[in-house]
Write a structure and sequence with these properties.
The protein has nine helices and six strands. The chain is α/β, with parallel strands linked by helices.
């Protein structure tokens, strides 16, 4: 879902300092080598309800996550999902003190006519209403929206966080690409488009991914190395990632970062035992 359109509206409020250019994007693998997750991993997607239950069990620990400062946060749902699926995440963020908003466009059927324009207007509206930059969170396909909107409106955007979003590999390395093509009417295999999607936004950008994701190959969710881009490995299903306690804590921690002094994620206390290492996209070839 590339978008080349640029905002013609002058930004208001504090502007982010220009980010140093990211290192050249060199694929650590050939797209043809990537395969979608196995049938076994797809079967493991049935554990999603247990992840939701684990969040309730973990509420005492989650309550100690960094508090919000009231800035606006938009959460974009995944393919053929709607705001109901992101409600637990948005409610948690509101509880922490963030001004969390749904995308309010119904079921996500891809970038159909008018969808991107309405997303652009929502970002502008919340920026002007709050007088603060907007954090963009996207689950799966919703993460593509978040990344592309941040590229288009970097001065309106505070940070981007994606969950299981396939932005760095070929669409056929997911188990949902045929569904995407059917519901959206788009064929996501154009090489220029794929290269554009790999480029990270010029704002702090975090990708949460799981090697046990049954829908998206985890290699498709790795940001290239850069001063404001990171990858956080968690153990989660694709369908349960947005209500997984490890994802919730990491999101809360990232939203509490001040963009000008942004630092990479580093879990502390007991949390550090539950997170995987940072991924360097150039060093994991053949790592399953």
């Amino acid at each position: 879902m590339p978008t080349r359109r640029r905002s013609t509206h002058a930004p208001r409020g504090d502007a982010i300092a220009p980010a140093p250019p990211p290192e050249p994007i060199e694929a650590a693998h050939h797209d043809a080598d990537l395969k979608p997750p196995s049938a076994w991993k797809m079967m493991l997607e049935s554990r999603a309800p247990w992840e939701f239950a684990a969040t309730f069990i973990s509420m005492t620990a989650l309550a100690r996550a960094p508090r919000g400062d009231g800035h606006p946060v938009i959460v974009f749902p995944g393919l053929v999902a709607n705001d109901v699926t992101t409600a637990p995440l948005r409610q948690y963020l509101a509880w922490l003190g963030h001004a969390s908003y749904p995308w309010s466009l119904g079921v996500n059927l891809g970038p159909r006519e008018g969808v991107l324009d309405q997303c652009r207007e929502l970002v502008r509206e919340l920026y002007l209403r709050h007088g603060e930059r907007v954090s963009l969170i996207g689950w799966s396909l919703g993460g593509i929206y978040a990344r592309e909107l941040a590229k288009e409106f970097p001065h309106f955007t505070r940070c981007v966080i994606t969950l299981g979003t396939p932005f760095s590999g070929h669409p056929r390395a997911t188990n949902a690409w045929r569904l995407y093509r059917y519901v959206s009417g788009h064929d996501p295999v154009d090489d220029e488009t794929l290269h554009h999607l790999r480029e990270p936004p010029p704002v702090p950008t975090t990708s949460l991914y799981s090697r046990t994701d049954g829908v998206v190959s985890w290699r498709c969710s790795l940001n290239p190395r850069g001063p404001r881009a990171e990858n956080i490995e968690i153990t989660a299903s694709h369908f349960g990632m947005g209500m997984n306690p490890l994802a919730l804590y990491a999101i809360a921690d990232r939203l509490a970062q001040v963009p000008e002094t942004w630092q990479r994620f580093e879990a502390t206390g007991a949390w550090r035992y539950f997170y995987g290492r940072q991924r360097d996209p150039s060093s994991h070839h053949g790592d399953d």
